Amino acid sequence: MQIRHTKLEIPQDDPFKNDALGRKDIEPPLTQFVSQATGSFVLALDASWGSGKTTFLEMWQVKLKQAGHICIHLNAWQNDFVPDPLIAIVGELKKAIEDYASQSGEASIIISEQMKKNRRIVDSLLKRLLPLGVKIATHGLIDIEPAIEKGFADAASSAAEDLIENYEKGKAEIKEFRKSLADLASQVASLNPSAKVVIIIDELDRCRPTYAIELLERVKHLFDASGVVFILGIDRSQLNHSIRSLYGSEFDATGYLRRFIDLDYRLPEPQVGNYCNYLFKSFGIEDLISKRKFSNSIQKDTEDLKVYLGGLMSASKMSLREQEQTVSRLRVILQTIPVNERIYPIMLSILVFLRECNSSLGIDVTGGEIDSDKVEKLISMICEMPNIKQVKESSENFDADEIEAHLLAVLDELNLNPDRLKDYKRLSGYNLPSLDDESMRTPEVRKARKIRTSVENLRNQGDHCTGFQITVDRLKLTNHFVLYDN
User: Counting Cβ atoms within 10 Å, is residue 250 exposed (0-12), middle (13-18) or buried (19+)?
Assistant: First the structure.
């Protein structure tokens, strides 16, 4: 049973092989930009949470290494347990330098001495930062056991003395480390003039607000090391919120970030439908549907789910993580439907989408509460989705009118006699006159005729033609399953 999609594999020889978001083409100019940078530089890769930012950075890192750069990738969220952010940074630097120097040939010989120098400074920084960081993180309320503390550093006998002593020595060591980092970049450039030391810091917006700010304040001392490029993976709006939560709602968070960042790059939105296709494959939706008994409708059911659920998710600009949760919910529902029963793909798409939207309207409708007023609001909501026009233009099969027809058919099925359907009948002529009639050629009349015909075709299929109540009951059953994001 596959409820969580598998982590995307990133082959080292072809990192964008499994790129599901159409972002392969933006890597070459970004890599070229890094290679041509002079001095020191800080680039922010800005994208909303759950939009594939981390995956892109992991793919890009492989290409940067292939271009000859030394790369360090620090996930701030995974390391926000570390008392002092600089501990995590210098620890990752130490590992990256050793990995780079372990390669055979000329490169290893040229940078070996520089590596030893950097390693000595990093070790010194780690020994100095660790005991002090633990005391500072607990505000002095929790001390380290004397024997363990002595193992970390003998200098930790007094917090006050540590602060003074470490201030002077730490400042000098950070300055020396910054210089040695620049020297390392210079040595790497002697092998490849365009090569840099690239430090990627990701998930700044996801970690504790205090840690995000501490990390920026600590790492800023390394920002002006020549030949070193920093790439910060951020959601600027969320990071701004974190900054204001610490400094006050009126604080100029944008101005604060300008102190650290030289240039922003906004990660492009993925192509419509690309990610949905990837999720269907990753969650095994097609394989699951192929096991059903309605063999003559398997292909159409799969296509309708992709088209309508994917179209609604794209039209509403759901984040990639929200789309993942939605398709995961779809998988759970499909697994609970007996293989000899219909799945009603269009209605299933509508209701699964509404359930994951978490709006009061969606909660009501997916709970079985539906009337003419709610349908009017739903139709308006779909028509006003921010990306609906793009979805209509990019997908030949996505049809918002068909969604409207399904919703109106539900009302007709429940004998609620919706006014909108009455208007469509009046506009299209009660006896559906020929389209040869000139009065039948206006866009409004054509739409009315189309939707009316779809509703009547659905109703001619008999009771439960839309599958609304059946699908509502299936959703209610799976509401007892709680899906968690990681």
Answer: exposed
Provide the pLDDT for residue 101.
Answer: 66
For 82, the token pair is: 């570390």
3-state secondary structure of 68: coil
473 and 436 co-located in one domain? yes
Q: What is the DSSP letter of 143?
A: P
What DSSP string describes 313-326?
Answer: HHHTT--HHHHHHH
Enclosing domain of residue 353: 274-478
Q: Which residues contact 147 (CB under 8 A, 6 or more apart)?
A: none
Q: Is residue 1 part of a domain?
A: no
Structurally, the chain folds into a number of domains equal to: 2
Burial of 421 (0-12, 13-18, 19+ CB in 10 A): buried
Of 370, 393, 374, give the one whose Cα is nearest residue 466: 370
Give percent of the chain with pLDDT exceeding 70. Answer: 79
Mean pLDDT rounded to a whole number for the chain: 81
pTM (two decimals): 0.73
Same domain, 340 and 411: yes
Residue of 150 and 323 predicted with greater confidence: 323
> Residue 223 forms beta bridges with which residues?
none
Q: Does 278 share its domain with 247?
A: no
**Beta partners for 264?**
44
Q: Which of 110, 129, 232 is nearest to 183 (CA)?
A: 110
Instruction: Tell me the average pLDDT across 44-72.
Output: 91
Residue 148 has pLDDT above 90, yes or no: no
Give yes or no for residue 136 having a pLDDT over 80: no
**What is the pLDDT, as a whole number, of residue 395?**
82
H helices within 102-143, ranges in order?
Answer: 106-137
Q: Rounded CA gap, 46 and 128, in Å?
A: 34
Number of other residues whose CB lies within 10 A of the CB of residue 460: 8
